[in-house]
Structures are given as C-alpha cells and as structure tokens.
Write a structure and sequence with these properties.
The complex is a heterodimer of chains A (227) and B (363). Chain A contains eight helices and twelve strands. Chain A is α/β, with parallel strands linked by helices. Chain A has two domains: 121 residues, Periplasmic binding protein-like II (D-Maltodextrin-Binding Protein, domain 2, 3-Layer(aba) Sandwich), CATH 3.40.190.10; 104 residues, Periplasmic binding protein-like II (D-Maltodextrin-Binding Protein, domain 2), CATH 3.40.190.10. In chain A, the strands form three sheets. In chain A, strands 4-1-5-12-6 form a five-stranded mixed sheet. A five-stranded mixed sheet of chain A has the order 9-8-10-7-11. Chain A is elongated and about 65 Å long. In chain B, strand 3 and strand 4 form a beta hairpin. Chain B has 14 helices and twelve strands. In chain B, strands 1-5-6-12-11-10-7 form a seven-stranded mixed sheet, with helices on both faces. In chain B, strands 2-4-3 form a three-stranded antiparallel sheet. A two-stranded antiparallel sheet of chain B has the order 8-9. Chain B is of the alpha+beta class and 363 residues long. In chain B, helix 4 packs across helix 13 and helix 5 runs antiparallel to helix 11. Chain B folds into two domains: 261 residues, BirA Bifunctional Protein, domain 2 (2-Layer Sandwich), CATH 3.30.930; 74 residues, no CATH class. Helix content of chain B is 45%, strand content 17%. Classes of the chains: A alpha/beta (227), B alpha+beta (363). At the A-B interface, helix 5, helix 6 and strand 9 of A face helix 7, helix 8, helix 9 and helix 10 of B. Chain B: Homodimer.
Chain lengths: 227, 363
C-alpha cells in the first residue's frame, strides 16, 4: 500500500482527478461533499486529501509516498528539494509564473541589469535598500544571488502583494501570476528577464517514505501509467 | 556538535595568539540583523540563523566575529591594536546539509594603518606558524590589484563605480565589462526610449507610462534616464585595458612570479603601479619573517566570491589532500568594510580565522 496525497479542494483537485483518470487510475471522493476522504479504484493506493501547501512537507517527512502540488511550493519550502523528492511527472495544469515586477512608470527599467543599477541608485538616494515584497523568499533570493543583483531587501507579503507598491511598503514585487491582469491593474510591469520559476502542478515522489517491495511494485505500475 | 577535543585545541590556539601579544576580546552571540544585512545584503539570510527579539527586533546568531570586533575597536580601541578571540559561529547550510552549522573559530585581527605590508605578513606568518604541525597548503591573492585596475580604467566615474560595486560578483562584473567594452548588444528599444525622452522630455514620458507608485519618484527615474543617455555616448573601454582586467582575473602562479607581469600590465594601466608596489612590499615583509614568496601560490583574484568583502591581501590554508573541505584557516584585509561600519571613518584592518574543528587530533 502506498499513500498518494492530492489537493483537497477546488480546480486543482478536479484537474488532478481528471489527470489520473485519463491515465487509467480512478480517484474517487467518498463520504459527503465536505468529508476529506477518498479512495483509488483498482490499485493498492490509499488517497490522502491535503491542502496543496501541506503536501511538500508531508512528502519531505515521508508521510506520503506520492503527492501532487505546485513545483513553486516544493522549491520554496524544501531545502535541496531534488535530493529529497523526485519529480515523477509534470501534469500540464496549474501553470503559474513567479515573476519580478516593477512600476510601469519606471520607463528606465526593463531588465535585471536595470533593476540592479536602480537598487544602487535607490540606496544612495533613499538611505535604505530597495524593497521587494514577496512570499517566495528562498526562490527570489536564490534567483537574485545567481543573477548578481545587490542592494535590495525582501519584505514579507503573504497576500495582496501587487498592492504593496501603491501602499508604500515596497518598491517592487515578486509574485505568482498566470495572466498578468492583477499586475497591470496595479500599475506594474514584468521585467523582460524576470521569470524566476515557471510553476505547474507536478507529481512528486518522496525518497524518504517507506519503500518496501510491495510499494516499489505499485510505484512501477504508476510509472507505467503516467509515462 | 563541537567536541571537547575541538574546544581544547581552540583554547590552546587562543593561548598562543595571546602569547604573541594579542588582546582577547569577546563578542555577543546574538547580533543585530540590521548591521549584517546592510553590510552583506539579503545573501546573508541564506548563511545566518535569524531570530526575533521582542524589544531589539531581528537578531542573527553570530555568523562571524569580524563585524563585532571592528565595532568594539572603533568604539574604544586605540591603534595599533591586536585582538584575539575564540567562540562559536553559526551558519545555515542550505546547499550542503552535511556541513557543520555550528563550529568554533579562533581569530586574530590587526588594526595598524602605519605598516600595512608588515601587518599582512604578520597575520599570515602567525597563523601559518600556529598551523605548521598540520602542514596545510597555503594560497594567497590580492583583490586590491583588481580594484586598483578598475579604478584606473579610462572611462566614466559611473562605470568605474558600477564595476567596483560588483568586484565580488563575477557574473555581474563580466556582464558590465561586456557592455562597457561593446561586446554585448545594446538593449533593444533602449535607443528608441532615449530618443523619445529627448524629443518629449523625461517627465512627459514617465507620466505617459503610468501613475507614480512607491517611493521611487519620477525625479529618480528622470535622473537615471539622464545617466543612461550620458552612458550611451560614452566610448567603449579599450581592448588593451579590458585585456589587463582579463589577465588579472586568470593570472595564477607564485607571489614573486606575479610581480614582473604586473609591472608590464602597469604600462597599459598606470594605476596598477601602486598596487604592484604594495604586493612587492608585502613579499619583502614575508621574506623578512622567513616565509618564501617565491614558492607561495598567488592569484590576484583569489577570494573574490568568499562574501567576506576582502579588498586587499587574502589567504587560505587548506588541509592537505582534502580539496572538498572548507579551508582550515582564511583571512585577509578588509579596509572597505571598516569604512562602511565607521560611516566614512576607515581603519586599515587585516585578520584571519582558524577552524579548529577541521584540524586532525594528532597532526
């Protein structure tokens, strides 16, 4: 018996059920609409319904063998994610891009080169580092370090991040967008080379979960189905 | 975990530094995060453990002693001063969780502006002598040479300042050099933007683009547009000068061997002469202390990515046959760091730290 963690509600759950269904693995909700319970027909797999944001943690702890969640959540929350988890299959939905965005009025800023130069200018003129609001601290910091951008600071924003610039708590943002609509409505534009991570729903395997012979056999079947 | 053996070794190293005339100093384990963040930027968050104090705000578990020792010296020290310390430092290990998160450092710092070459040699000689029983492999560098070269480039102050700011970030430094030497294509649309600004006026272009949001003002944007326009007119850095920089970045030999090529490079870039003089003076000071600069490995750009903000002499001592492991001792000159901490008041400073936890029990 292996345990498969899937998002417990919404479009992400529906799409996950459809994705497995198309590949011959029928996931079924059981009990009432509100009860978080389910099963997998015709396979030795138990279904665990979880919040998508808890799935990276449960995979890392080895409490579930397989899990469906956004690749952004895994990269942000799991240190050295690929040594702990295996990305078995990208699932082709739940697309969301983590991007860097700045005010449209910054006509002098189009690239990271510009942003870096503006960070130096801003710090010299305003006496503190240019603030970038985000909830993806690790992804943004790793990206900016790899790109050699300096003199910025990350400020935490757990929601309505696009509004932080107008509200004066940040000068730029790094956030998830799918259409860019909310960014534009808040007078922001995406840097031309500001794509930090292109996220999508992904089936991950935990390397730490108890993999006995029977579990391996089930996993082989799952691999054959999703290949 | 720090073992009893590591602690005993650290104490005996500290005793030897004190016997050599260093004054012992202590530093708080909890350091205010603000100072470290201002100095090292957000990157320090990937390296240091952060915690929250209800009154003092964000704090960091001491990631090194340099900052508190410099602060203590600036507050009450008289020059020349020699300090020794020993204690735990804490480092996050996001990239390699097998590396130690807490370990002891034993350090030695010299604040002596009168005789910098001799102070460099003193620190390196003393730490080499302490570690001699383990016969570590030495390597040295001098970021002051690269900095002198950048400051001597025939180009605008703005370009020199941009390069100087990214001395410690090789990728970004190269991008800037490629741009300033005309190797990389100008950004598409940039010329059109500058034309537009010239005909319509900066403020009008900015207003048309969108409402002003956030603390960066339209005047800030206009200032940078003017800088971009001026930079577009700036002639490229010459090939001869760019080659001097490339040579410095790749040069690798011994300290003595480096002197003659540096004198040759100074023909193309005269600003290198004082840096070559400093290297020569240091080599002589080392020879006076019984070291052998003619066999000492030397690469000018060594230590460029260490994030310690060395801006002159740098060195490492590494355990023999353990190339994957962090060096058992590192050090160097960090005059620029003291000037940031002293808000303009700079104190020439050089120092080094030993990691007793990386030394074998019996050499």
């Amino acid at each position: 018996m292996i345990r498969l963690g899937v998002p417990s509600k919404g479009r992400l759950m529906d799409k996950t059920f459809q994705w497995f269904g198309k590949r011959g693995l029928t996931l079924v909700r059981t009990g009432s609409d509100r009860e978080y319970a389910g099963r997998v027909d015709g396979a030795d797999i138990s279904l665990v319904l979880l919040s998508a944001s808890e799935i990276p943690r449960e995979l890392t702890a080895g409490h579930i063998h397989l899990g469906v969640t956004g690749s952004d959540l895994v990269r942000e929350n799991v240190i050295g994610w690929d040594s702990q988890l295996e990305a078995v299959a990208p699932m082709g939905f739940g697309h969301a891009d983590l991007v860097l965005a700045v005010p449209k009025a910054w006509v002098d800023v189009d690239t990271l080169d510009d942003l870096d130069a503006v960070c130096a200018q801003f710090r010299a003129g305003h006496g503190h580092r240019l603030r970038i609001a985000t909830k993806y601290h690790r992804l943004v910091r790793d990206f900016l370090r790899a790109q050699g951008v300096a003199d910025y600071q990350l400020v935490d924003s757990q929601g309505a991040t696009e509004g932080t610039v107008k509200n004066g708590t940040a000068e730029a943002i790094a956030d998830i967008t799918s259409t860019g609509e909310t960014l534009r409505a808040n007078h922001l534009k995406i840097l031309s080379d500001g794509l930090i991570h292109a996220s999508q729903a992904t089936l991950f395997r935990s390397r730490k979960a108890p993999w006995d012979t029977a579990a391996h056999a089930v996993m082989d079947d799952v691999r054959a189905m999703v290949a | 975990m720090i073992t009893a053996g590591e602690r005993a070794r650290a104490e005996s190293l500290l005793a030897r530094l004190r016997a050599a005339g260093a004054h012992p100093v202590e530093a708080a384990l909890l350091q205010p995060a603000g100072t470290l963040l201002d100095l090292y930027g957000e990157d320090i968050r990937a390296r240091a453990f952060t915690t929250q104090d209800p009154a003092a705000g964000e704090m960091m578990l001491r990631p090194d002693f340099t900052v508190p020792v410099v602060q203590a010296h600036m507050a009450e020290g008289a020059e020349p001063a020699r300090y020794a310390y020993m204690g735990e430092v804490f480092r996050r290990q996001e990239e390699d969780p097998t590396r130690a998160r807490e370990y002891l450092q034993v350090g030695f710092e010299v604040f002596d502006g009168a005789r910098p070459a001799d102070a460099d040699a003193e620190v390196f000689a003393l730490i080499s002598d302490l570690l001699a029983p383990w016969a570590p492999v030495p390597a040295t560098g001098d970021l002051g040479i690269l900095i002198a070269a950048v400051e001597g480039l025939t180009t605008s102050d703005r370009r020199r300042a941009a390069l100087r700011r990214h001395i410690w970030r090789p990728g970004r430094f190269k991008r800037l050099m490629d741009r300033y030497t005309g190797q990389s294509e100008p950004l598409p649309g940039r010329a059109a933007l500058l034309d537009h600004v010239r005909s319509e006026g900066a403020m009008s272009v900015i207003d048309q683009a969108g409402p002003s949001v956030g603390l960066r003002t339209p005047a800030d944007v206009a200032t940078r547009l003017a800088a971009l326009a001026a930079d577009a007119e700036e002639p490229a850095i010459t090939r001869a000068e760019a080659e001097v920089i490339d040579t410095l970045l790749t040069m690798d030999g011994t300290m003595t061997e480096a002197l003659s090529p540096l004198r040759d490079l100074a023909v193309d870039l005269p600003a290198l002469s004082p840096a070559a003089d400093r290297l020569e003076a240091r080599a002589e000071a080392m020879a006076r202390r019984g070291l052998t600069p003619e066999t000492l490995p030397f690469a000018p750009a060594r230590g460029r990515t260490a994030m310690e903000y060395y801006d002159g002499f740098v060195f490492t001592l590494s355990a023999r046959g353990r190339s994957g492991q962090a060096p058992v001792a590192t050090g160097g000159r960090y005059d620029a760091l003291t000037s940031v901490l002293g808000q303009g008041r700079s104190i020439p400073a050089v120092g080094g730290v030993i990691r007793p936890g990386l030394l074998e029990d019996t050499p």
